Amino acid sequence: MRLLYKYMLVLIFLAIACKSSEKPTGYQGQPKSSVVPTTNKPVQKQWKGIWSFNDSTTFFTNDFDGARLNGVAEDGNNHFTLWITAENTPINVSPWYAFKVWSKNSKKITLKLSYQDSRSRYYPKISTDGLNFKPIDSIAFKAINLGEGDFGIKAAPEFVELTLAINESPIWISAQELYTSTRVKNWIDSLAIKPYVSTYEIGKSTQNRPMQLVEINETENAKNAIMVISRQHPPEVTGFLAMKSFIETISGNSKLAIEFRKKNTVFVVPLMNPDGVDNGHWRHSMGGIDLNRDWQNFNQPETKSVRDFLNKKDSEGYNFVFGVDFHSTWDDIYYPLDTVATGKKGKIVFDWIASISKRLPQKKTNVKASSSLNPTMVSRTYFFVNHGMPAIVFELGDNTPRTFLKEKGKVAAEELMRLLLAN
User: Fold this and answer.
1) Residues 278-321: pLDDT tens digits?
2) Distance separating alpha carbons of residues 165 and 103, to the nearest angstrom
3) pTM for the structure as a whole
4) In 65-77, which positions are buried (b, 16+ CB within 10 angstroms) versus exposed (e)?
């Protein structure tokens, strides 16, 4: 018996040792965010217009909402260098670009994308109408000076070259799909056709664009509330696409959604940073600030609008039971608040993550929880500390397949509705 006992102890020890030596897989998330000032900083507005070359037969433009192109040079032999610069610095390296190109004569051209103090994060998308985008064919894409590792800006190539066949019909090249404030407003209006969906303005951005909110409920007595926001950072389109599917599911016609709306109200700000989106910014608002660092000082009108709205709804007797902030990063990851900080109230967030993972086992998504409730500079922490709602930053990968984004948004909505109805 003694030998057997010793043998079992050895096996247990080996099992623990092997487990602890396993290397973590997948994207492990960003380090803890630093506290930064959120008072206005100067922003360099990009020049808008048309560049013409080859005796005015080849053209580039950034003269549309969402565009980012800061300079073009002709290198000869139909090769062009394009410069992409940020709105200000220092800045998280998310080098957004979007431009149109065309020619009076059919030809092939090569474009080299060059970035200010950055590398090429986003794989180019191409469109013939500015609405429907697809990744550019890999044959037309060349990475230059490859990076190292699997995730992060150091893993990205320093430059990329694109080979395009162009003619008199413009084509759009963009870092991600274009969802400008006008296009988002059109989507909001399409939802508001339903009798239980309304939309209204809760404030103005720095450049006086409306901060649009969507309200979803079946009855006026549905005082349990969810707060959803998206696109604090302009290039984070994959988070927006998952949020779009999430909201379409909650506002849909399933029995689950109908029952849920009778007892719960959903408030959504789909576009937190309309100025940054329409001006083609890498990260910041027109105040030159990362909005997701301003949920304590509230120096920016965009975050103030949501703060004031939440306070108003608190005074009207709403009980906020959940908050979701949709973002994008290098790969799917969840950033909840640890139950060490939230207690039992925050457990529902982890139950939700587990239920999503169970239904979508094909893609492992890591979890990076925070146990810090001070400062409240990010939305998730502010939501919990000031309004008592369990909350999460829900991040989708830049290159997560679009069909999976839609499915994940749908599953996330269904599982959250089930959990909240059961509570």
Assistant:
1) 999 999 999 999 999 999 999 999 999 999 999 999 999 999 99
2) 10
3) 0.94
4) bbbbbbebeeeee
Q: 102 near 167, Cβ under 8 Å?
A: yes
Amino acid 35: pLDDT: 87
Helix (H) and strand (E) counts in the chain? 10, 19
The rounded distance, in Å, linking the Cα atoms of 267 and 259 is: 17
What is the three-class DSSP state of 265?
strand
Q: How far is Cα 33 from Cα 283, in angstroms, rounded to an integer?
A: 15
User: Would you give the distance in Å from CA 287 to the centre of its chain?
Assistant: 19
> Per-residue confidence at 22, pLDDT binned at 50, 70, 90?
low
Which residues have CB under 8 Å from 105's CB, separation 6+?
57, 167
Instruction: Provide the sign of the torsion angle of the four alpha carbons 190, 194, 195, 201, taken in this order.
Output: negative
On whether the CB atoms of residues 381 and 370 are closer than 8 A, the answer is yes
The whole-number average pLDDT for the span 125-154 is 95
> Average pLDDT, stretch 335-352?
97
Tell me how far CA of residue 89 lies from CA of 170, 181, 278, 297, in angstroms: 32, 24, 19, 20
- pLDDT band, very low/low/confident/very high, at 17 (cuts 50, 70, 90): very low
- Residue 383, token pair as written in the block: 């939501």
Instruction: State the burial class of residue 396 (Cβ atoms within 10 Å of its Cβ: 0-12, 13-18, 19+).
Output: buried
Per-residue pLDDT, 23: 65
Integer CA distances (angstroms), 72 to 58, 61, 112, 174, 280, in order: 12, 10, 10, 16, 17
State how far the alpha carbon of 108 is from the alpha carbons of 126, 140, 249, 360, in Å.
15, 11, 43, 42
